[in-house]
Write a structure and sequence with these properties.
The chain is an alpha/beta fold. It has helices at residues 12-26, 43-52, 70-80, 82-88, 100-112, 134-143, 153-161, 174-187, 218-231, 246-256, 270-279, 288-296, 311-316, 326-338, 340-347, 358-368; strands at 3-9, 32-38, 59-60, 92-96, 116-121, 147-150, 168-170, 204-209, 236-241, 262-265, 282-285, 301-303, 319-321. The protein folds into 2 domains: 3-173 and 354-368, Rossmann fold (3-Layer(aba) Sandwich), CATH 3.40.50.2000; 204-347, Glycogen Phosphorylase B (Rossmann fold), CATH 3.40.50. It is built from 16 helices and 13 strands. Strand 11 (282-285), helix 12 (288-296) and strand 12 (301-303) form a beta-alpha-beta unit. Helix 1 (12-26) packs parallel to helix 2 (43-52).
């Protein structure tokens, strides 16, 4: 008997991590009827990934509006999800991560009496304010989840400490499935990455992404001061694809737009971004996904946050927390640029987040369920 599985996502990171699983389930057409509902919480960046994986949504809620608040986006998403659940009558709803879409998708499934599968379950910082509002989103989602797919043993342990001990699987992270798939196709010449040619002769490329809500204001100003100081070196070229949020755009363009060694770009499509990551010398980011992807590509990652829900790479030594303090960001970046031994120590290829087979393991668990 075929089971209907409804995938719900709305942002680029969610799409990156759910598309490999969606394609895996679609390789078993006798077992699964898959439906895709996108909220378009991040419209443009979401569409890039859908194109890369050739996914066409069955339901496109298109809830994004400029400058919307958490109150507004949450209300719009939860209300809009009623119709897809009524129309598809799914046997299982799949959500990923910790976005507003994740929380609303799980809540809509709960209201509809549909079991929830949570991909990348169990991430925790233990501080509801960091990251905000993601930490609360994932804690609440766990309470409504039937199938918990944790990327690492540590994430599974977090769930067990909260009293969730049944139907927990350690699978690895589906984001690694995606990035290794794209990397290999780029290296074989099966994909091209137009729009990612930022190499400068004699300069090492530093890739930056930063967009976290908890850094808005002074945190972003300090990050920008640090990037300007780093870019004053003659041997680096900083590339920063700038998130469209106005709080990010205003600070970044005010402080960095005129620096000759800094290139500010629009957010890149997924394939060019993977290409940029694999060619970067090092990465500065506050993104959760890049903390996982960077070590897969052998790149040192400095995390522009005070806390992370992904401590495994920190423990392994391939990721380091540097916060938003200007002097600390400059100091740690300089150490990687000037000390070959430190760079080699951090850049050794070690990935605690999986081997590229997470989707295979999740499908097997869903089939057993």
């Amino acid at each position: 008997m075929r089971r209907t599985v409804l995938f719900i996502f709305g942002t680029r990171p969610e799409a990156i991590k759910l598309c490999p699983l969606l394609l895996k389930l679609r390789s078993f057409p006798d077992l699964y009827s898959t439906q895709v509902c996108v909220t378009a919480q991040h419209r443009g960046m979401l569409d890039q990934v859908l194109t890369a994986f050739a996914i066409t949504p069955d339901y496109d809620l298109n809830v994004m509006t400029s400058g919307q608040t958490l109150f507004q986006s949450t209300a719009r998403i939860i209300q809009a999800l009623e119709q897809p659940f009524a129309a598809s009558k799914p046997d299982l709803a799949v959500v990923q991560g910790d976005t507003t879409t994740t929380l609303c998708g799980a809540l809509a499934a709960f209201y509809s009496g549909v079991p929830v599968a949570h991909v990348e379950a169990g991430l925790r910082t233990g501080d509801l304010s960091q990251p905000f509002p993601e930490e609360l989103n994932r804690v609440l989602t766990a309470k409504m989840t039937r199938l918990h797919f944790a990327a690492t043993p540590a994430a599974a342990d977090n769930l067990r400490r909260e009293g969730i001990s049944e139907r927990v699987w350690v699978t690895g992270n589906t984001g690694i499935d995606a990035v290794l798939h794209v990397r290999d196709r780029l290296e074989r010449g099966e994909l091209t990455a137009s729009g990612s040619d930022f190499d400068r002769p004699g300069k090492r490329l530093i890739l930056v992404t930063a967009h976290r809500r908890e850094s808005f204001g002074e945190g972003f100003r300090q990050i920008c001061r640090a990037l300007a100081a780093i870019a004053d070196r003659s041997d680096v070229h900083v590339v920063y694809p700038v998130h469209p949020n106005p709080n990010v755009q205003t600070a970044v363009h005010e402080h960095l737009r005129s620096h000759p060694n800094i290139t500010l770009t629009e957010p890149l499509d997924y394939v060019p971004f993977v290409d940029l990551m694999r060619r970067a010398y090092l990465i500065l980011t506050d993104s959760g996904g890049i903390q996982e992807e960077g070590p897969s590509l052998g790149k040192p990652v400095l995390v522009l946050r005070e806390k992370t829900e992904r401590p495994e790479a920190v423990d392994a030594g391939t990721v380091k927390l540097v916060g938003t303090d200007t002097s600390r960001i400059v100091r740690e970046t300089t150490a990687l640029l000037d000390c070959p031994d430190e760079y080699q120590r951090m850049s050794r290829i070690h990935n605690p987040y999986g081997d590229g087979r997470a989707s295979e393991r999740i499908e097997a668990a869903i089939r057993d369920h």
